[in-house]
Design goal:
Layout lengths: L2 E4 L9 H10 L5 E6 L11 H10 L4 E6 L7 H7 L3 E5 L5 H13 L3 E6 L17 E5 L15 H14 L4 E5 L7 H6 L4 E4 L1 H5 L3 H9 L9
Parallel strand pairs: 1-8, 2-3, 3-4, 4-5, 5-6, 6-7, 7-8
The protein binds D-xylitol-5-phosphate and zinc ion.
The site of D-xylitol-5-phosphate has 22 residues, from strand 2, strand 8 and helix 7.
């Protein structure tokens, strides 16, 4: 069943406990937490203490997306803070350091994941296919919520699904950015397992219904 991971980047930061409770009450699968350092992306969001605080108030899996330079410096702290899934960006350090960081994440009992920006070719992921439990294909330029879905990224997820089926079939594919009721069926058609939704979730008139719609395995054409 496809999963939905609402991104708290679109929530009220003054009331994150209510936001994660709301995500749970509406039947969503994971909580997506966007960490930005103002260097890897031109924006700053939240960090380790917020992940630790969220860990205390939710039992949903915390899907932590690090948009930070040289993540090897901080992955241990994010694992300790309570991340269940920890995603680092392929572009954020040397290939060797990315390998080391992914292994460190796994050694700490957390699911290691890697992400690529829209301009990074999917071939760049080849050295990491066996080392990760999830690959996040960005469908917007990382840094901000509320941007338009980049349809051209779907070719990547389809190719990836083929590669992963051969070498690491348990590995899941996630997309992030511009996913809404119109774009999520295309994601599912292209082999995506987990859909991050920031604005679409928090702006949905009926969030529970939106969650069910995204989780539906079969495509339907009617408006949810
Ligand atoms: C963007 C973040 C996303 C963001 C998605 O850099 O990684 O997780 O919250 O927001 P929407 O769903 O509004 O595009
Ligand atoms: Zn994200």
């Amino acid at each position: 069943m496809p999963k939905i991971a609402p991104s708290i980047l679109a929530a009220d930061f003054a009331n994150l406990e209510a936001a994660v409770q709301n995500i749970k009450d509406n039947g969503a699968d994971w909580v997506h937490v966007d960490v930005m350092d103002g260097l890897f992306v031109p924006n700053i969001s939240i960090g380790i203490p917020v992940v630790a605080a969220l860990r205390k108030v939710t039992d949903l899996p915390l899907d932590v997306h690090l948009m930070i330079t040289r993540p090897i410096r901080y992955v241990g702290k994010f694992c300790d803070a309570g991340a269940d899934w920890l995603t680092i960006h392929l572009e954020a350090d040397t290939e060797e350091n990315i390998h080391v960081a992914l292994r460190l994440i796994r050694s700490l009992g957390v699911h290691p994941a890697i992400s690529i920006k829209p301009s990074t070719p999917v071939e760049a992921l080849k050295p990491f296919l066996n080392e990760v439990d999830m690959i996040l294909v960005m469908t917007v330029e990382p840094g901000f919520g509320g941007q338009k879905f980049m349809y051209d990224q779907m070719a990547k997820t389809k190719v990836l699904r083929g590669w992963l089926d051969a070498v690491n079939p348990e590995c899941v594919i996630e997309v992030d950015g511009g996913v809404d009721k119109y774009t999520c069926p295309i994601c599912k058609e292209h082999g995506v397992d987990v859909m991050v939704t920031g604005s679409a979730y928090f702006k949905a008139e009926d969030r529970a219904q939106f969650v069910k719609y995204v989780q539906q395995p079969i495509l339907i054409n009617e408006d949810y």
